[in-house]
Structure formats: structure tokens, C-alpha cells
Design goal:
The protein is mainly β. It has no helices and 17 strands. The two termini are 29 Å apart.
Length: 301
């Protein structure tokens, strides 16, 4: 899965187009997840998906379910639906995003096109392997509030087939004078393509205080919920803190570090292998670790 730990960020997708200053942020799915694309939080670290995480630049996320968000997505600033662009020569608003988290290295790019009275946001998400995702949906702006519902589909080029339906998705950004709030909600559905596969719902949420135009700080929470196959409902719940830092004109650096509160999600491979005495099958050893995080860079234009 691609949501982040997709965890899960887009971003991830995942994309949200929102007008704002350099202090506005992108988290794709907001600019879809930090998710998560969409693996469970324990597998990831896509979901986060999918648009973009934002805070010092307007988005589209993060780290589902994108899924980022991330997760964890839509850095592009766009005029409100039905409102003409101030300067036609400004071109199409867009964004580019890089995430590093438990899912590995992830790249996003997205834009918002004006189609008469409707703004249409879209993005692609790729990981460092063979997974690729496309997301699309309308972008709505109501003053400081931006809402971007999306649907997406993921492909695994090594398997030569579609593997994931990323729906529903909703990226919410509220950008006020003193605070910035971003939320990703992403469904990662694998069973339409693989019988009996797990389906998950990923969410990424953070609330930042604007200490200055260039520095925002606050709490972040991500959760992955199991939707089928008689699994524990809450499979991952990392909580921690986030900083969004302006990194030059139209650039944003996002740093998230947190603690995984769910015991099963804290089990990671330790490189050892034992043999099951009953089945004779090899069993990979695990150890318990709780640190989760995501580093994000977003460029908007």
C-alpha cells in the first residue's frame, strides 16, 4: 500500500488546490499523501496518499490511504470555482512534492485546471518501486477553506495490472491568520483487483500554529483502519509533532516525527530468521520499535 505508515502522506498523495501565501502548506492529497497509496500503517510507513501536504505553500496528499497525505497533498494555488484568473499569463497552478517515510521515496506532481465554473485537480504519485497512481477530482474554495474530493487508481507495472482503487478521498485545508489545519481521508481498496485482499481507510490530520510567515508548528495524528477480513479495526495510530518551514520562495519543508501507539504496528523485521517447529517454514524475526516520521519537500508555482 502506498499510504504512509501511508504513513501516509500523498499526496498523497493527493492534491488540494488552495490559494495562499508562502505560509500555506501542501500535503497532496492535500498536495495528495504524507498517506497512506496504500499499505497498512505497519507495512508502510501508501498510504499517507493520495495529494500533498502543505503549510508554507498552498496545496494539494498524509503519511489514505492517499491514500499521505499525507500525507502527508495540493500545493497549487487556484482561483475559486467560477472566478476568472487574475492574469491569464500566470499559467496553470501546479506543485511538485517529495516524501520520505516508511514507504520509501515517493514523488508527486499535480496541477489544477480551470474548466469554466469548475476547477479540476489532478496528480500522479510514484514510489521508488513499480507502483504508480493517478488521482482526479473537483477543487472547491470557500474563502480560507478548500475542499478537494478525489478518486484514484493505482498500478503495479511489475505485475502489469491495476492493483488499487483509492476512493473515497477528501482533502481539507483551512488556512486562517493564526492557524493552519489540513486533513486527508483516503480509502485503499485492493479487493476489487485481488480476491480476499485487505481494504483500509487512512486519515492524516494536523493543526499548526503560525508563529511567523515562515515557521508553523503543531500536533499531527495519523490512523489506519481495517475495513475487512476480521482484523483489528485500528491497525496503526502514530501521534507526534510537525513543523512546516518556508524554504525559499514557493518552497516548503515539512518535518513530522511521532510515536506509534499500536503494539502490532511497532513490530519490525530485525533481519533474523527462525524455523517454525511445527510447519518447518522459515519465520522472519521481529523487534519492537515505535518511531515514525516523514520528511517532505513541496514546490508550488
Amino acid at each position: 500500500m502506498r499510504y504512509v505508515t501511508r504513513s501516509l502522506s500523498l499526496v498523497v498523495p493527493a492534491v488540494v488546490a488552495l490559494s495562499g501565501s508562502a505560509s500555506a502548506q501542501v500535503d497532496p492529497a492535500a498536495a495528495p499523501a504524507d498517506a497512506p497509496a496504500a499499505e497498512t500503517a505497519s507495512e508502510q510507513a501508501t498510504p499517507e496518499p493520495a495529494p500533498a501536504e502543505t503549510a508554507a505553500a498552498a496545496p494539494a496528499v498524509e503519511e489514505t490511504p492517499a491514500p499521505e497525505p499525507a500525507a502527508e497533498p495540493a500545493p497549487a494555488a487556484a482561483p475559486a470555482a467560477g472566478e476568472p484568473a487574475e492574469d491569464e499569463e500566470e499559467g496553470i497552478p501546479g506543485w511538485f512534492r517529495i516524501d520520505s517515510d516508511g514507504l520509501g521515496l515517493q514523488l508527486w506532481v499535480g496541477a489544477t485546471h480551470s474548466l469554466g465554473p469548475v476547477d479540476l485537480a489532478s496528480d500522479i504519485y510514484v514510489d521508488s518501486g513499480t507502483f504508480a497512481e493517478f488521482d482526479i477530482g473537483p477543487a472547491f474554495s470557500f474563502g480560507p477553506l478548500a475542499l478537494t474530493p478525489m478518486v484514484g487508481i493505482g498500478f503495479d507495472w511489475s505485475e502489469q495490472r491495476a492493483t488499487t482503487l483509492i476512493a473515497p478521498q477528501l482533502f481539507t485545508i483551512l488556512d486562517l491568520d493564526m492557524i493552519y489545519f489540513e486533513s486527508w481521508i483516503q480509502g485503499f481498496l485492493y479487493s476489487p483487483f485481488t480476491e480476499g485482499a485487505d481494504n483500509d481507510l487512512y486519515t492524516r490530520n494536523f493543526l499548526l500554529a503560525k508563529l511567523s510567515d515562515d515557521f508553523h508548528i503543531g500536533p499531527q495524528m495519523e490512523a489506519t483502519l481495517a475495513l475487512n477480513n476480521d482484523r483489528d479495526t485500528l491497525s496503526s495510530l502514530p501521534v507526534g509533532g510537525r513543523i512546516n518551514l518556508a524554504y525559499g520562495e514557493n518552497n516548503l519543508l515539512g518535518l513530522f516525527l511521532g510515536y506509534e501507539t499500536q503494539e502490532d504496528a511497532r513490530q519490525v523485521a530485525d533481519g533474523t530468521v527462525t524455523v517454525d517447529p511445527v510447519s518447518g517454514e522459515p519465520v522472519e524475526g521481529t523487534t519492537e520499535r515505535a518511531l515514525v516520521g516523514r520528511f517532505t519537500f513541496v514546490r508550488t508555482w
